[in-house]
Every structure is written in C-alpha cells, then in structure tokens.
Amino acid sequence: MSLPDDALWPILAAIVTVMVLSLLRPRELLVLPAWVLPAGEVILIFAVAANRPRRLSRRAGLLRGLAMGIVAVLVADALLATGLLVTALIEGGQATNSATELLTAGGIVWLTNVVAFALLYWLVDGGGELARARGGSGPVDLAFPQQLNPELAPRGWRPRFIDYLYLGLTTSMAFSPTDVMPFAPWAKAAMGLQSSISLAVLGLVVARAVNVLS
Questions:
Q1: pTM of the entire predicted model
Q2: What is the SS3 string spanning the chain?
Q3: Of 107, 138, 128, residue with least CA distance to 26
Q4: pLDDT tens digit string along 131-172?
Q5: d(Cα 29, Cα 85) in Å, to the nearest integer?
C-alpha cells in the first residue's frame, strides 16, 4: 500500500545544511572526529531518499530506525557542542578570541540545534511520517493549531516537514512552546532540552560578544 509523501527537497536541504554546519564548526567545538557527522548525514540522506515511495513494509521500519539513530546522534552532538562552547566562554579559547569568531561559532551551534530538533520532531511525532499519512486518530504527541481547530485547516491536513522546521525555529527563539503544544512526555522533554540549549547559546554568546566589543 503506497501513501502520499511529504515533499522530499526540504528534508534533504535541512540535512545538507547540518552537514555544511558541521564542516564549518571550529575544531575546538567538535565532539567527534571531523568526518563522522558528515558521513552519518550522508547515510541519513540515503535512508530518507530510499524510503520513497514509502510502503507499509519491514524496510520502511528499518530505514526509519536508522534515521532516528543518526538524528539522535545529531541532537546529542548539538548538546555536547553547547557544553564545549560554554566551556570555551568560561576558560577562553580560539573561538572566543573575537566577537566575529564568537558569533559565528554560536550561530553554527544554534542553527544545528534548530535543524536537528526539527528532524527529531518530524521522525518521532505520531509514530513518524508513515503513521501520520495513514491518518491515525489516536492521541497526538505534538498538537498543531490545525489539529486543535480542524475547521481552520483543509480536510485531511497533517503536519509536513516545514511545520516541524518552524516548530524547531520558534522553540529556539522563544525558549518555550509557541503555537504547537507538546502533549507526550518525550515531546515536552525534547522541547525543554532544545529551549535550554538555545538559551545557553544565545544568552552567553551575545553577552560575551557585547563584552568583547566594549
């Protein structure tokens, strides 16, 4: 049984963005060897692309499991990179020598956080894209406005990757839920962790940059 697909290009563009950011990250903020994340992201691209057209099959479950494992590594890497950035701010380091280098490093870590969590939300919410496409009527993990007010949305509406990317962006900017409400415990934990990472990066990096400039 084939089911309608989410647009592929925004997902691939997001993965490529994370790949580029991982290559641009200062060496002292690397958690793993420089080649590990790009290699994992290439595998993620193939896992997502190979699942098109998606079918109700064992292969679809294996590919989703592989994608979830790689995205979990990306999220963990974003968390650890934030810790390294905070350490560099406290102890000093090459990435904090100038306001330009500091803002660049902070921006790379912050954007990686946004995209990595967007991929996580997209993969996990409601059992994944395949389960959402089947139109399950069970409890939702993340409640979008169109789900809370179905009369405002087209019939059969379901969140696409761009909706999860917007969720990742607003959570990192507002440090809290905006229009999407987390219902499941994992969703609350993920959004809380993302907000904490973003608050640490934006708060400490901006404060240090202002100090350097003055």
A1: 0.89
A2: CECCCCCHHHHHHHHHHHHHHHHHCCHHHCCCCCCHHHHHHHHHHHHHHHCCCCECCHHHHHHHHHHHHHHHHHHHHHHHHHHHHHHHHHHCCHHHCCHHHHHHHHHHHHHHHHHHHHHHHHHHHHHCHHHHHCCCCCCCCEECHHHHCHHHCCCCCCCCHHHHHHHHHHHHHHCCCCCCEECCHHHHHHHHHHHHHHHHHHHHHHHHHHHHHC
A3: 107
A4: 787 766 567 899 999 888 888 888 888 899 999 999 999 999
A5: 6
